[in-house]
Design a protein that fits this description.
The protein is an alpha+beta fold. It has helices at 30-36, 69-84, and strands spanning 3-11, 16-23, 40-48, 52-58, 61-67, 89-94. It has two domains: 3-48; 52-94, no CATH class. The protein is elongated.
Length: 110
C-alpha cells in the first residue's frame, strides 16, 4: 500500500527542503525521490509522514478519512466548499492522540 515519507533533500542547484515522497517501500528509493522532487540530488528519509483524521458530518452520517498534511489541505478545500452550502458541518482534524488540531491547517482558518 503506497504511503508518504518525508525526505530532507538537496538539489543540484543548492536548494534544500523537506518533501513528501510517495512509495510502497519501507523507505523511498533514489529513483522515486528523483521523479518526485525536481532537481533531486541527495536526501535523507525522515520516515513516514504523519497522518491525521479529517472528520465531518453530512446527512449520511459522520465521514472520516486518514490523510497526510497535503491531503488535509486538498480534501479540506472540498469539505469547506460543501460546508458553505450547508451540506457538511462539525468539521474537525484530529492528531494521532485524538486532539483537535483543525486550526493548525490554513484551509480551515478562514
Amino acid at each position: 500500500m503506497p504511503h508518504f515519507h518525508l525526505v530532507a533533500y538537496g538539489t543540484a542547484t543548492g536548494e534544500t527542503g523537506v518533501a513528501h515522497v510517495l512509495t510502497d517501500r519501507t523507505r523511498p528509493s533514489w529513483q522515486e525521490c528523483h521523479e518526485q522532487i525536481p532537481g533531486y540530488r541527495t536526501g535523507i528519509d525522515l520516515g513516514p509522514a504523519p497522518t491525521y483524521t479529517l472528520r465531518y458530518d453530512t446527512e449520511h452520517g459522520t465521514q472520516s478519512r486518514e490523510l497526510t498534511r497535503p491531503g488535509i489541505e486538498t480534501v479540506g478545500r472540498l469539505v469547506v466548499r460543501q460546508a458553505d452550502k450547508d451540506k457538511v458541518w462539525n468539521i474537525a482534524v484530529l492528531d494521532a492522540n485524538g486532539g483537535d488540531i483543525t486550526f493548525d491547517f490554513p484551509v480551515f482558518c478562514g
